[in-house]
Amino acid sequence: MLRIVSFLLALTTLLNSANAQRVFAHVIVGNNGAYDKAQWISDIRLAQAAGIDGFVLNIGTPWAGTIESQVSLAFQASNEVANEFKLFFSFDYEGGTGGPWNPSDVITTLQVKHYVENYSYAKHPYTPFQNTGKAIVSTFEGSDHVGDWSSIKTQFSSRGIYFIPEYTSKDPNWHRGHLDVIDGVFSWNMWPDGPNDMPTDPATDPDVAWKGVNGQYMMGVSPWFFTDLPNYGKRRLWRGDDLWHQRWEHVYDIKPQFVQIVTWNDFGESHYVGPIWNQGIPNQDGANAHWYVDNMPHDGWRALLPHYIATYKNGGVEPVVTTEKLSYWYRLYPAASGNANGVVCNAPWQTTYPPSQCLQDEIFFTALIKSLPATISVQIGGNSPTNFQATKTGLNHFSQPFNGQTGAVTIKIVRNGAVAVQGTGIAILLGPPDGRANYNAWVGSASA
Ligand SMILES: *[C@@H]1O[C@H](CO)[C@@H](O)[C@H](O)[C@H]1NC(C)=O
Fold first, then answer.
1. Does 123 contact ligand 1 (Cβ within 6 A)?
2. Which of 35, 55, 79, 84 has most ligand 1 atoms within 8 Å of CB, for mutation?
3. What's the rounded Cα separation, in Å, for the pair 182 and 190?
4. Which domain holds residue 133?
5. CA 82 to ligand 1 centroid distance, Å
6. How many domains does one find in the chain?
């Protein structure tokens, strides 16, 4: 009897912890200034269709105007969709026009309209025995203000706050010294340094180090990074290339408690996976992203998300594939063909490189395969196609160099001589028409 009870207990714990894994997407609320409720509902439905459990609402100071009204609309929309979609706040300590958050404004924000008690906020996932029923609160930076949080947390002691700040500017050891207030760690370290891949050797793997702080880890997954906003002092990129696929595979190794997709709608940094919202694209003089965001859809990065996310929640074991799909992306011309115009690979605090030394001039593509054999063929313009053999059912990722070829891209999954899935993509050119290099990606997808 005892054995059966302990077996059942172990099983329940296993099921609970599997269920407690969640995937959120980072939403820059400031970019949604002109949203109405219907647009929030549409985004929530698109996110849910991709398997995303909730939005992390990035809010800068001051708590007023569009930030306050958009948060209200997001909560109304989420409650209306009423399908267990989650919302929680990321207090942005660097992005607001009112400077860093002060504790009383944080408390006001969490208390106005009782967001912490709101169905969409309060119905949060939780780790058994650790953060049961607590409301997640995150930040973007603000590590100098970590001292504010013990008193903020006492204000919400009946509900309980589960605090997972993003303090990537401080190292894991620093975090260990603040476990009196920090419940878990989220890290913005999710793009490679220079021409490299993200480290996966446990000795140097940042995800291993971050998860090692206390085991409660929200892992960041991002497909891309390119920003050219001189007035914000931001003219740089980090290598994307295969990252979207590699990072998800790494999620299966790291097995974090949560995943946060960066981002849903940050157009200025080119890592949006949500639909392009014209009015959310930075458009001031000296900070205008239209030239690199317009006509560069990223929706195709959501195509395989249901499978990536289901695999993550299934302990890294891929579920059976019922619908074959393709997701593919590339820049529109070789990196060295355009004028970098001051853009560098890497951030100012790293060794910088010319973009063409970091980026690969290749088509990156992932095929979700139902059965073998399957060939994936990729063709640029009228050139002869290159064939790749799927090695397993499930996810198969490849890349194909441009090799100087130009023209529209055709990608197919072919089985026994018949085309099972076919996708097409915008033409690859010899160079940028106006000479200025756009390092954003064009992303497409196709499905059976
Ligand atoms: C959640 O917040 C929204 C927006 O303020 C509100 O319309 C809704 O009634 C709230 N729901 C609950 C259950 O508190």
1. no
2. 79
3. 21
4. 18-313
5. 11
6. 2
